[in-house]
Amino acid sequence: MPFSEALESIKEKVLEKYQDQFQGIDRNAETNTLKVLDAMRKNRVSEAYFHTTSGYAYDDLGRQKLEELYAEVMGAERALVRSQFVSGTHALATVLFGILRPGDQLLSLTGTPYDTMQTVIGYKNPSSGSLKEFGILYDELPLVDNCVDINSIPSAVKSNTKMVMIQRSRGYSTRKSLTIDDIKTICEIVKQRNPNCVCFIDNCYGEFVEPLEPTQVGADIMAGSLIKNPGGGLALTGGYIAGKKDLVEAASYRLTAPGMGDELGASLANHRHFFQGFFLAPHVVAQALKGAVFAAGLFQELGYRVWPSPEAKRSDIIQAVELGTAEKLIAFCGGIQKYSPVDSYAAPEPWDMPGYADQVIMAAGTFVQGASIELSADGPMRPPFNVYLQGGLTFEHAKIGIMGAAQALASLL
Predict the structure, then answer these.
(1) Which terminal residue of the chain has fewer beta carbons within 10 Å of its beta carbon, N or C?
(2) Is residue 397 within 8 Å of residue 405, measured between CB atoms?
């Protein structure tokens, strides 16, 4: 192996120490695989649904079946699963613009949203065409000790609060990601205060990490990206929205046009990638989770601060490591890139990434461009220079890439 004996020794120590965590992840993957398999059997998925369509694509049977499958697995009344979504942010924005109207208030209960959502909202990071420009009010509930301020939710939710937005993942922060139990509790408190308020979940990075999804515990609607967890590494693009029928329908009118909704949209890419990726997703997510636990254990042994800890209950696939300097952040991403299957020769550099307030560096030697269910690492170029590691189609590759990052850091000493 190309790594030092000292690093190999720490690797073996971490693998032995966290066997219970790895086994728990595998058990959850089996539970979720059975859930997906049962839904595919119930919905009688067949090869006939894999074909492409063109034009308006009315009566696209594969598209309809895929959305039925997502709704079944997610415990939702309806789902919108489309290659026309260009990113997770696009799917999230479609929900916001589809449901909110001038004078409505959007309230973020998880503090300041992820960078790209700030431009969609338009208050902290002004942007043309934002919610602010359409007269939609916005407020956010600050975090307390890096956690959701549960006790302040009743006073924060007003009579004109049309929607609360709950970001499941940590984003570019060190706050605790929300478990399904956390989401259930938050939704219950919101509904007690305002039964008509829509509970909207940014579910990116969280799918299949636990046995249930937010729409199975009280959330009204959620959205995410297909090149993250639910695409299983095979989806080439796209996103999804799932939830209550009327809310998903309202969102569909923003994806296409009023009166058209989800009844058209050609499937130019073969549906097989979406069906097969969804089937593989519980297993692939488990591989990514084991990689995250391994990274937490390894870098903790090396003296770095990590979030979450190796022993912590996980609710997304992201692992944060505080590196302390720009030089270390660049080196870490370079180590991941070096052991990537694609573009391994490239040297990641910070750049002005669209939708972000700071320059961002990203290591993503992926088969699908930017797919963060594949092993990748990124972070904003701002103190304390945290890196956010996610993905890994196989645990074997995750271990190698993480060791590469650790060795790159060691070379700076």
Answers:
(1) C
(2) no
pLDDT digits (tens, 9 = 90+) for 81-131: 999 999 999 999 999 999 999 999 999 999 999 888 999 999 988 899 999
3-state secondary structure of 78: strand
Q: How far apart are CA 220 and CA 74, in angstroms?
A: 12
Token pair 């006790």 in the structure block, residue:
151
Domain locations along the chain: 5-32+278-410, 55-269
What class is the 5-32+278-410 domain?
alpha beta
How many CB atoms neighbour CB 135 within 10 A? 11
Q: Which two tokens stand for residue 239?
A: 């996103």
**44 vs 35, 40, 65, CA distance in Å?**
14, 6, 9
Classify 55-269 by CATH class.
Answer: alpha beta
Which pLDDT tens digit goes with each residue over 62-76? 999 999 999 999 999
Q: Is the pTM of this model over 0.90?
A: yes
Rounded CA-CA distance 84/268 in Å is 10
Q: Would you say the C-alpha torsion 162, 238, 255, 242 has a positive or negative sign? A: negative
CA angle centred on 282, ends 22 and 332, rounded to 5°: 60
Q: At what angle do helices 326-338 and 395-410 cross, to 10 degrees?
A: 140
Report in angstroms the alpha-carbon separations of 274 from 37, 50, 200, 278, 361: 14, 9, 24, 6, 29
The answer to whether the CB of 34 falls within 8 A of the CB of 208 is no
What is the Cα–Cα distance from 135 to 132, expressed in whole angstroms? Answer: 5
Distance CA 266, CA 53 (A): 5
> 167 by DSSP, 3-state: which?
strand
Q: Are the C-beta atoms of residues 235 and 274 closer than 8 Å to each other? A: yes
Q: Give the separation between CA 127 and CA 87, rounded to whole angstroms.
A: 18
Q: Give the Cα separation of 351 and 381 in Å (integer).
A: 9
Output the pLDDT for position 348: 96
**Spatial distance between the Cα atoms of 395 and 294, rounded to a whole number of angstroms:** 9
CA distance 33 to 44: 16
Find tokens 């799918």 and name the residue: 207
pLDDT score at 357: 78
pLDDT, mean of residues 278-305 = 98
